[in-house]
Amino acid sequence: MNRIDELIVEHCPDGVEFNKIGELLERTSNIRWQDAKGAAFQYIDLTSVDRNTHTIGDTETIDSETAPSRAQQIVREGDVILGTTRPMLKRYCLIPSEYDRQICSTGYCVLRPRADLLLPNFLFHLLGTETFYSYVEANQRGASYPAITDAAVKAFRIPRPPIEVQVEIAKVLDTFTKLEAELEAELEAELKARRRQYKYYRDALLSFDERADADESKQASIRWMTLGEIGKFTRGRRFTKDDYVPEGISCIHYGDIYTQYGTSAMQAVSHVRTDLATTLRFAQQGDIVIAAVGETVEDVGKAVAWLGADEVAIHDDCFAFRHQMNPKFVSYFFQTERFNAEKNKYVARAKVKRLSSESLAKLTIPVPPLEEQERIVCILDKFDALVNDISFGLPAEIAGRRQQYAHYRDRLLTFRETA
To answer: What CATH class is the domain 223-367?
Structure first.
């Protein structure tokens, strides 16, 4: 019998009490910017929290003059914050000492555990469990910009074993997380190096007018054209979370393009009801499906080449681009620095970043002969598989470590409820 089992037998042999998270919290507060003139703070935006390591990365220094409207909530060391906008991205973290009394976005739910009832580290690990995110998925609202309310987060019921048990479980999971993070850091460094190499090679292959080693006859046969000159954009039609079914019409939501797809796809991960068929618009084999909205300027405009034999319904925040080029060549070009630099000039920078079909049509792309497109795609496919394929290599090792931690965490945090 291990130490945790011994503590459970000693302190809660008949099960543990479950409480709503909100019943175990202290009150939090917002900053009064009129009283903070001259003071500077670190601002934790929605993109500041890493989705994999659940730590705070880049923050912005703000004051009363520069603070964005969403910079309102004061965080304290030991708070747990959870991103409630697009919550399935799993942006949550424990606030460390260096961010005590700093400011976070109203896009986070700030949870401040009562010291006598709930250990911050214990709550942090609970918020990563499959049980919690199943609840989040069921309670988020909105299709284009899904969100969950703070009230819904605080209504989730969690096990609350005695503090002695919480301490021991958190200690084990913290140690596991630290060891995993150290190994992941080494693997991530190697993977980043490979991706930088791939990115450099991809951009060099697709920068035809800058390739000093390119055959002059091939260079002469390459034209630079606007997307509007070589194809047509069709906007999708709206469907919502309530329209999803396990089996039905294959569909692509703009959010799937960020989280589920790479350069190309032959099968869709989502489906909607068959009775919606007459109300939808579809991408056909060879079309490029483009996300028209995103959280960041970098995100918007991400594209996937649809290679499935059957057509696929697309969301109204997506465009299908129909053309006569090699679809994967187009999709690869959408990833280049050159394309993104040009794209960024046209992105509408509201809270949600957007690209219109009119703007997309103005963007330029090289049009080499089809056999040259196919040759480049063949090269990049091999390189892409070595770097990004989750089924082998370093990405698989990293994913395996995370799955191991998740499995162990969920087992440790599963309790029998008292009658």
So the answer is: alpha beta
